[in-house]
Amino acid sequence: MGVALAFWAADDLAVLQRSNSPEMTQFLGGPESEEEVVARHRRYLRLNASGEAHMFRIDLDGRPVGGIGFWKTEHHGVPAYEAGWSVEVPFQGRGVAGSALGQLIDRAASVGDRELLVAYPGVDNAASNALCAGAGFERRGTGTEPWRGGTLMFHEWVLDLTRVRARD
């Protein structure tokens, strides 16, 4: 199984469209409108170009199967990167997300300007929470935030990027 990350490109809109199903967005408050998906695609391209984010397409044996990325944020007042990901349902449970997240962690550490990588999966998203634990993140708490017309309850996961740099 060959999992690779490719920088998000203009022709990757279809990846977001396939991930915008009720099944794929059940922990995020449901699907976005087509306009919101197109706006997110444009945002990924703009943020990659400005260096504010590093958004990638996940390829499995050369086939696009999801997306992953990290972007600048603050975590309790500390500069950090936030990570997010999605892998299409037919490719879940095969280690694709774990491999992609491992590659993403290495890329975030190599940038060198932030000490923390954080993730905020919904408390009911067992797969994403297990992915964080398996990748070496430490669970630091739970929070809530307004999200897509409702409230998202999430776990706070934190990874110390200085430890990743030290192992290399």
Give the low-confidence spans: none
User: Average pLDDT across residues?
Assistant: 94
DSSP summary: helix tally? 5
What is the rounded distance between the termini? 24 Å
Radius of gyration: 15 Å
Strand content: 35-45%
Characterize the biggest β-sheet. Answer: 7 strands, mixed
Summarize the structure in short.
The protein has helices at residues 13-18, 34-50, 96-111, 126-134, 161-167; strands at residues 3-7, 53-60, 63-75, 78-87, 116-119, 138-147, 150-160.
Question: How would you describe this structure to a colleague?
Answer:
With 168 residues, the protein is an alpha+beta fold. Helices cover 33% and strands 36% of the residues. The chain is built from 5 helices and 7 strands, in the order βααβββαβαββα. It has a 7-stranded mixed beta sheet, sandwiched between helices. Helix 3 (96-111) links the parallel strand 4 (78-87) and strand 5 (116-119). Helix 3 packs across helix 5 (161-167). The chain is globular. The two termini are 24 Å apart. The relative contact order is 0.16.
